[in-house]
Amino acid sequence: MKGRRDFFKELLGSVTKAAAEFAYEVSKATENLVRPPGSADEDTFTALCEKCGKCVENCKTGVLEKYKKLNPIILDTPFMNFDNNYCEQCYTCIENCPSGALKFENLKKYKYVAKILKDKCVAFKEMFCLTCYWSCLNIDKAITIRDRSYPEFHPEECKGCGRCINACPTEPKSITMVKVKNE
């Protein structure tokens, strides 16, 4: 037979778990974290990630960092911060992941592609800026120039490295990453 103490202990545990799950669902809708290469969908990734930090420690460019906002489910999980740098796609993060949260097979299933936010981009506000275009390794394929002034993004050619975001001079950035399923 359970006593009062056990009852309240279970109740507090249930409330804490529900609050954490609610915070996680809210953050999924608002955060748009760009996960390391080889991650699956967000729920699978967060379920598998052990928050060990080995992917962050072994990232050659320093684009990976641990999430530090107070959300118990995604706290200390890795994400790509393109303010720091871009991804060279060397995949040391996948090689050093002990939990299976990052897998080479997921590279065939999912990828990130850059998407321009025209309402924030200064090139669409009659200011000359082609920084994203000149930073792209897949120049004239992933990003082309329309009417000699406007960057145009082609997701089918994008490698998802984030060089364009890293180079973008606007704050907030005029480019975001979107995760898509490969076909």
TrEMBL record:
<dbReference type="InterPro" id="IPR017896">
    <property type="entry name" value="4Fe4S_Fe-S-bd"/>
</dbReference>
<dbReference type="InterPro" id="IPR050157">
    <property type="entry name" value="PSI_iron-sulfur_center"/>
</dbReference>
<dbReference type="GO" id="GO:0046872">
    <property type="term" value="F:metal ion binding"/>
</dbReference>
<keyword id="KW-0411">Iron-sulfur</keyword>
<feature type="domain" description="4Fe-4S ferredoxin-type">
    <location>
        <begin position="78"/>
        <end position="107"/>
    </location>
</feature>
<dbReference type="Pfam" id="PF12838">
    <property type="entry name" value="Fer4_7"/>
</dbReference>
<dbReference type="InterPro" id="IPR017900">
    <property type="entry name" value="4Fe4S_Fe_S_CS"/>
</dbReference>
<keyword id="KW-0408">Iron</keyword>
<feature type="domain" description="4Fe-4S ferredoxin-type">
    <location>
        <begin position="149"/>
        <end position="180"/>
    </location>
</feature>
<dbReference type="GO" id="GO:0051539">
    <property type="term" value="F:4 iron, 4 sulfur cluster binding"/>
</dbReference>
<protein>
    <submittedName>
        <fullName>4Fe-4S ferredoxin</fullName>
    </submittedName>
</protein>
<dbReference type="Pfam" id="PF00037">
    <property type="entry name" value="Fer4"/>
</dbReference>
<keyword id="KW-0004">4Fe-4S</keyword>
<feature type="domain" description="4Fe-4S ferredoxin-type">
    <location>
        <begin position="38"/>
        <end position="69"/>
    </location>
</feature>
<keyword id="KW-0479">Metal-binding</keyword>
